[in-house]
Design brief:
Length: about 375
């Protein structure tokens, strides 16, 4: 049985909506956009009409129910919240998730949505985190689009999800293949039909080395499937400023109490998480009172003050419950009292989920890692 973000089993309705032949989800990638195009085209050609609707929030689910016209409807989702996921499962319609790659999807989002590297990383981490609970459901089909596949074979595969064999929609199939004859492969069709897909592909070599390194580090953690261990690298953590930029060097502790670092505003799948904020303190003889906060949207999940004594490598440990993956996570490091010297440097944030259910309690530890 599927599990809810509250740790129990989802209440799944037994009545299936026949107006929903298929629900399609995936990353905000060219492959997902191309797949929903193929699904909607096949339904339109075989049933005469089709509605494709966004299905990322509980409000989207309610609007679909209110607007139920009996016409074939394809829900499409890339960042579904908990209510939307439960509503999708309650329809008992087949669900297909399009798997994808973090780096390739982030590159596409930079071009298609005019985002900088960190904004794209945040959006893609949100999508992976919101989709992750659905991968734990046995009834959800996870599919990777083979760009090199013969386009006719790919169309037949999509049609099979709709319970259509080539012989059962032969006339419409031949017409669709004729209309798409200029594109022999899925990749050719993606470049022709998905806006910015070809531009994003061409821009890969133009990305800065630091951007590719950030995407590849996050891509080793965020993947299509279970996500239980994540590293947020130091270059995703921000230093206050107008505008704020990733921390590039050690931050002087000298001065009044203030925010030292914040961000990265990335996302996590729901569940119970253990986190460690790694940092270094140099040229620091007297102790300083530090505060570490973890905020999910506007909800403060952790707020703890600790005395950091001496210089060295440290880790602040805590645990918290993540309930809504659509909201970003912010880690704040705060100098709680003024300091007369020393330097602070974040080294990254390590996160591990011990269970997808929700539990209570936090724990702080600033043991020296040296």
């Amino acid at each position: 049985m599927p599990h809810s973000e509250a740790g129990g089993e989802l209440s799944v309705l037994t009545q299936r909506s026949d107006a929903i032949p298929l629900a399609v989800g995936g990353l905000p990638s060219p492959e997902s956009i191309f797949t929903i195009h193929c699904v909607s085209e096949i339904v339109r050609r075989t049933q005469g009409q089709v509605n494709v609707i966004p299905f990322n929030t509980g409000d989207d689910a309610e609007r679909m129910a209110d607007a139920n016209s009996g016409e074939p409807t394809i829900p499409f989702f890339d960042t579904p919240d908990g209510r939307a996921r439960e509503a999708l499962l309650a329809t008992q319609a087949p669900i297909v998730l399009i798997a994808g790659d973090f780096t390739e999807t982030a590159r596409f989002c930079m071009v298609a949505r005019d985002l900088d590297a960190l904004q794209a990383a945040r959006f893609v981490s949100q999508s992976f985190s919101c989709l992750e609970p659905l991968y734990r459901h046995d009834g959800v089909r996870c599919v990777a689009v083979d760009r090199k596949a013969n386009l006719a074979d790919w169309i037949d595969q999509v049609a099979a999800w709709l319970d259509l064999q080539p012989s059962t929609w032969q006339t419409a199939r031949q017409q669709m293949l004729s209309d798409y004859a200029a594109w022999p492969t899925a990749e050719a069709a993606i470049h022709a039909l998905v806006e910015f897909a070809d531009t994003a592909s061409a821009d890969r070599e133009q990305l800065p080395t630091a951007t590719l390194a950030l995407f590849e580090t996050l891509g080793r953690c965020y993947r299509s499937g279970w996500i239980d261990s994540i590293v947020w690298p130091a270059d995703s953590i921000l230093e206050p400023g107008e505008p704020a930029f990733p921390v590039a060097d050690a931050i002087s502790l000298t001065g009044p109490a203030r925010m030292l670092t914040f961000g990265p505003f990335l996302h996590l799948p729901p569940g119970h998480w253990n986190a460690r904020y790694h940092f270094e303190v140099d040229q620091h003889l007297a102790g300083n009172l530090m505060e570490f906060d973890i905020v999910n949207g506007t909800n403060v999940l952790v707020s703890h003050r600790v005395l950091v004594e001496g210089a060295g490598k440290f880790g602040f440990d805590c645990e918290f419950d993540m309930q809504e993956s659509r909201l970003p996570v912010e880690n704040r490091a705060i100098l709680a009292e003024g300091s007369i010297g020393g330097f602070f440097r974040p080294a990254g944030i390590w996160l591990n989920r011990d269970r997808p259910s929700v539990a209570q309690g936090t724990n702080a530890d600033t043991s020296n890692d040296q």
